[in-house]
UniProtKB/TrEMBL annotation, chain A:
Gene3D superfamilies: P-loop containing nucleotide triphosphate hydrolases, Probable tRNA modification gtpase trme, domain 1, tRNA modification GTPase MnmE domain 2. The gene is mnmE. HAMAP family: GTPase_MnmE. GO terms for molecular function: GTP binding; GTPase activity; identical protein binding; metal ion binding. The keyword tRNA processing applies. Residues 221-379 form the TrmE-type G domain. This is tRNA modification GTPase MnmE. Signal peptide: none annotated. Exhibits a very high intrinsic GTPase hydrolysis rate. Involved in the addition of a carboxymethylaminomethyl (cmnm) group at the wobble position (U34) of certain tRNAs, forming tRNA-cmnm(5)s(2)U34. The lineage of its organism: Bacteria, Bacillati, Bacillota, Clostridia, Lachnospirales. GTP binds at residues 231-236, 250-256, 275-278. Binds 1 potassium ion per subunit. Pfam families: MMR_HSR1, MnmE_helical, TrmE_N. It comes from Cuneatibacter caecimuris. One of its GO terms (biological process) is tRNA methylation.
UniProtKB/TrEMBL annotation, chain B:
GO terms for biological process: tRNA methylation; tRNA wobble uridine modification. SMART domains: GIDA_assoc_3. Its cofactor is FAD. This is tRNA uridine 5-carboxymethylaminomethyl modification enzyme MnmG. It comes from Cuneatibacter caecimuris.
Amino acid sequence: MEQRTIAAIATAMSPGGISVIRISGPEAFEVADRVFRSKKAGKRLCEQETHTIHYGYIFRNEEMIDEVLVLLMRGPKSYTAEDTVEIDCHGGVLVTKRILETVLENGASPADPGEFTKRAFLNGRIDLSRAEAVMDLIQAKNEFARKNAVSQLNGKLYFKIKDFRDMILDGAAQIEAALDDPEQISLEGFCEKLDQDLDGICIGLDEMLADADNGRMLAEGIRTVILGRPNAGKSSLLNLLAGQERAIVTEIAGTTRDTLEEQILLGGIGFRLVDTAGIRSTEDIVEKIGVSKAMEQAENADLILYVVDGSMPLDENDEQIIGMIQDKKAVVLLNKSDLPLYISEEELKEKTGKKVITVSAKEFTGFKRLENVLCEMFLHREVQYNDEVWITNIRQKENLRHARESLQLVRESISQNMPEDFLTIDLMNAYMELGYILGEEVEDDMVDRVFSKFCMGK
Amino acid sequence: MPVVEEYYDVVVVGAGHAGCEAALACARMGLETIMFTVSVDSIALMPCNPNIGGSSKGHLVREIDALGGEMGKNIDKTFIQSKMLNASKGPAVYSLRAQADKQDYTREMRRTLENTEGLHVRQGEAAEIIVEGGKLQGIKMASGAIYRCKAAVLAAGTYLRARCIYGEVSQNTGPNGLQAAVYLTESLQKNGVKMRRFKTGTPARVDKRSLDFTKMEEQFGDERIVPFSFATDPESVQKDQVSCWLTYTTPETHQIIRNNLDRSPLFSGAIEGTGPRYCPSIEDKVVKFADKERHQVFIEPEGLYTNEMYLGGLSSSLPEDVQYEMYRTVKGLENVRIVRNAYAIEYDCIDALQLNPTLEFKNITGLYSAGQINGSSGYEEAAAQGLIAGINAALSIQNKDRLVLDRSQAYIGVLIDDLVTKETHEPYRMMTSRAEYRLLLRQDNADMRLTEIGYRVGLIDEDRYQKYLTKKEIIQREMDRLRQIHVGGSETVQNFLEKHNSTLLNNGSGMTLAELLKRPELNYFLLAEIDPVRPVIPRDAAEQVNINLKYEGYINRQMKQVEQFKKLENRRLSSGFDYTAVKGLRKEAVQKLEAFKPASIGQASRISGVSPADISVLLVYLEQKRREA
């Protein structure tokens, strides 16, 4: 039997509908009790009958987050055959996310990709005939999470975490080198310096955690790529969408990519707009590179906004783009309706097989319609957040939190004058947690660092 | 041509630290055992550093001893200086190290071997392994003699196709000028064993009379000596010790080395083997750490019988004339006379990934391998493997369950798991940082961890086992007692706390002695003052009580991790497992798992290239098979 109690959002994310947060494992009821307050004071979920529903509120410390229904299922009569609590809420994406975070802060761990299904199978709840499907699902979800974990991460943050990891490993390596070769390597004055370093790292991690709460740490939302040939109006479109009063949020300049990203909210739905315009040039060869870059972006997109310059006839660039978006979710924007149009909405719809909306970036017409169309598509599940991306982000935040806690333990050990070898344990825990965020494993890092930095041995 | 043909239960090839432990274990477990060596005068030879133990290696020796091995007892009989390293750090990293009288060490081990019933020592070079149908039948010697056996342990050390090199000189000899073993590599390869070539080195030995000790710092042994073996009476080892000496290289030393790098076989490419990073030659250090102004040199006696001194830190493969020139720039070595040159040695060893955690070859039943031939380095690492290989060879003949120590039980478990699971590119040395549960794997509690196991396999006698049980009970009883005794803010207690700069107790809210003991400024021994009803218990038991309670929080955290670890470790995988049949596994994982044939899910999870998702998939597959059955 598993010991870890896990939690995740069990439903697909949608802005209006009901979401379910599922907690499963030996402490599921205890975790739920820590965050749930019933209408009736003093009612404890642990003491309630199995397969009952309870009405109340989720609290994060003293702050009420949402009004919820809680379903209790004691194992083995649950999906995973473990003690399970499901929290039904209807507060939309952000509230759902905050409830999950609260649950995680109170003793549950984020479920690994495919973990509920894995547990359900291992505990005999899923039919034998579906074993292969279960294995496929686990592998696919993990693969997706792995690919996304790092690419979702804001570039500046990536390098900051790398730096912190590096400093932590240096500290641990110094201790281990001294333990291994005490006659050559001294730890005189080392702890004071380490404590200062850790102070700096902890401040940095606190900032990251605060940013994570403001949604600034990690890019979330429907990954939307704007395509179109040069001068079709992609940049103006992006600026317009990002410049509206509802379209706040931040600018994320990815260091690993040459594209500009904006996070916006339209009709309560988060979008990550990726502009491929910045890689244009009049030089033919560079133009080609630009197009292939844009293609790459489009490959990984949840949604494509294809901008057509209606004031000019379609050219070979357009043909190429139309060919490419055939098997993708896409909306076509017929731009420059302020000028005489070469092609009509109907003709373009016929040609592309996609929804077409006539807009004018210059005169700001057609945007309300665009918003409505996008909301419709989301509500009908034609486009959606990838849940795995979403949970990846929460996992990363958990990793940050754990790293922070481990470093705090190191600092406490230092203040209690614990022998240095005790410090390594928590240092390496923090190193490992931060590594998860970057998609890096620990392996022989420490031993390698010891030998590369210290001259040891006789 | 008629040849000698004999029958034994077990053949051990090699009489170094691995061979000795393997042969003793087999013979003591009641098997007729023959041990071969190229020179009977070189049993348990220490061809490099003249000491046993040190950081993490001391742990290995303690564990060998708790399992019923010989190394700890042998060094207790023959040491000439002893030191507990890291005594100012936490108990998990205390490490015992003793300087040995090399000749005494060899002689004592030989005496033990020769007086063990069922153990036969024989000089000769093993040339071939005889294998039929994937099963070992015997060993053929260079003389043509055939020794049929039920199991064999290869402990050939660094002797296989060994080559010693310094400067332009290259000689096909084993360590210390001994005869190399030239045939065995080919026979192993013919039987499908993958070989590799490693390299290591040793510094020069010099004449004590040519050294100026006034320019060096004297390094003394500890005042109170702690023996290695749990069976050795501590009083019996309190004796006069000899000193070691510390000196330093100079800028001139480094200049001479840099000027002659082109004559070093390491840099000219004359050496092909991979050397260890933790044991660099002085020329390596000067090149890699160019900004270091000086390097430490430890001058250590080779024994009481000789004037030879070991130059710790000055290992080299530079030419003879350069060795002289550079050594003479080291403080106190201005007039040094060399007795034996420094040299590098390269040798064949096996790729240990071909072994099960029992140290038996996956593809050759009955053939075991231990020590430097497995790509490890160090006397202690070798002895640990020799003991486990010997025990398993014997257990297999006796048709009993094999012994595999896992990473949460012993450094020996970490060592062997690393060797047979991880791809290593240099001779492997133990380090405390390799043990993820090191707070549990202390050198002080090796007997608590392993005596029971040693007793079960038959290497720990009844008397020692009973003593262990008694000690265990005393510790438990005393810990329970301390957890139950509450002290309040009485005057005696408050005075005591004040004396030790410890926060006073509030009136009323008492504390147990166990809780009080956890304070950094207090310990079990100090608390005697406010614990009038304390029973008298032996010092070693008292130390266990102190450590167990003082670090209880940390220890419990690691025990929890061990619980998780054990779950995967206890899920065994059969060697016939067909990974290609598991559809959900990634291609890379299938290849790795097919090649490795891991013994457990836990081991599988440590193979590089096998992801956590692959492990989940394997678990689902196993469940599927279980339900289908």
